[in-house]
Amino acid sequence: MTALLALLACALTVHLLVHPRTASGIKVVLLTAPPVAGVVWLLEEVFKRPLTAVAVAAVFVVVVIALLGLLGHPRLPTWTKMIVFGTVPVAALAWLLVVTADDTLKDPGEDPCSMYYGGIGVSKAFPPQAYCRYQDGSTHDLATGTQFVFWVCFAISLALLSIGLWQAVRDPRTLVRQFRSGVSQSTRGTP
C-alpha cells in the first residue's frame, strides 16, 4: 500500500512539473521538499534530534524563499538562475562523500584509515572534513579534492541564493508572482 501511495505521489509530481500552467513556485517546492522532509523525518524519528530537525526545516524555508526570489529576479539571465539547480546537488553530494570518506560505519579494521594508514578515521559535518588521526597526534587528510568541489559549489550557491534573498526582501511581490499560474486575464475568457 505504501509503495502504491509513493507511486501515485510521484506520478502526480511529474504531472504537475510538466503541466505548463503549474506555477514555478509550486514546481520548486515539489522538487525540493521531499528530500528535505526525509532528512527532517530521519533527524527527528531515527536519530532523536528534534532541534536539529527544526533547524534544517527553518534553513529549508529560507533557501526556498531565496530560490524563489532568485527565479523572479528581473535582470538576471536564465542561465545564471539555473546554475543553482546544479551547484546545490553537487555540493550536497560532495559533502556526503567527504563526511563518509573515513567509513567509520564499517567493521573496525576495514575503514581506509586503519587498513591503509594505520590510524583512526575522524570526520566533521561542517566544515566537512575527514582525516586519519595517528597515535603520535599527526593527521592525514582524506578527500581533499572533494572538499574543494564542495567549497566551490557552496560559494556559488551561497552567492546566488543571497541575490535571490535580497530580491525577495526588496520586492516581496516576487514571491507572490512565483505562485501564480501563467494564465493571463486575456486567456481566461470573458464571463
In order across it, which strands form the biggest sheet? 1-2-3
Helix fraction bin: 55-70%
Q: How much of the polypeptide forms β-strand, as a percent range?
A: 5-15%
Order of helices and strands: HHHHHHEEEHHH
Integer average pLDDT: 78
Query: Terminal Cα separation, in Å?
Result: 44 Å
Query: Low-confidence spans: pLDDT under 50, at least 5 residues?
Result: 184-191
Structural class label? mainly alpha
Number of helices: 9
Shape, principal axes of CA atoms: globular
Oligomeric description of these chains = single chain
Radius of gyration: 21 Å
Q: Please report the total strand number as a whole number.
A: 3
Index terms:
191 residues; disordered C terminus; mainly alpha; 9 helices; three-stranded antiparallel sheet; globular
What's the structural blueprint in terms of helices and strands?
Elements: H1 2-18, H2 24-46, H3 50-71, H4 78-82, H5 84-99, H6 112-117, E1 120-124, E2 129-133, E3 139-142, H7 144-170, H8 173-178, H9 185-188
Antiparallel strand pairs: 1-2, 2-3
Task: Describe the structure in your own words.
By secondary structure, the chain is mainly α. The chain contains 9 helices and 3 strands. The protein has a 3-stranded antiparallel β-sheet. The longest helix has 27 residues, at 144-170. The radius of gyration is 21 Å and the shape is globular. A hairpin with a 5-residue loop joins strand 2 (129-133) and strand 3 (139-142). Mean pLDDT is 78; it is low at 184-191.
